Amino acid sequence: MASLRSGLRRLSRLSKRGIDIGIACLALFLGFPLLIVVAAFVAMDGGPILYRHKRIGAGGISFGCIKFRTMILDAEQCLEEYLSYHPEARIEWARERKLAFDPRVTAVGRFLRQSSLDELPQLINVIKGDMSLVGPRPVTQSELVNYGSAVPLYKSVRPGITGIWQISGRNEVGYETRVRLDEQYVKGWSLGLDLWILLRTPAAVLSRRGAK
Question: Which PANTHER family does the record associate with it (predicted)?
Fold first, then answer.
């Protein structure tokens, strides 16, 4: 019986990968005109169109998480200067790794973040096998400390473009709650859960609840 359950679970994970590839390829094909339009707006300031940020994937292997660039050039220097003049913002950054007002974000970038269009290039990460359509939010190496004993669980699966955190209010949800949601997702994973999250994602994106 145990071997049967193990076999079914393995089959489910293979099915998940097949679904990931199929939907990601279809979405890239259908969304290609939109990708071109977004790329043109991002390129207007003369900077690069895409941005790759190191995130931790399955097995603890880092990968370049692809997004449309939403920040100004020399963004890190801008952040350091801003935090040096705003102690309350430094505390917020240390706690959440995000800012309610982020001086680095461009006008176009702010719209892309609020609409989640900046994350469309992550479909390439899905096809490559770095990510899944559904999974824990991809985190940086420095953020892993926040996961405590749940780190092995986080590393046991591919991070996702969407997940329970995204449909639960995104930035309205505190980091501790986000970690707990990711832990619950991995422990209770099923294809049915993924389908439930995928079906709720469009409404969450359109509502822009918790988007920054």
Answer: COLANIC BIOSYNTHESIS UDP-GLUCOSE LIPID CARRIER TRANSFERASE, UNDECAPRENYL-PHOSPHATE GALACTOSE PHOSPHOTRANSFERASE
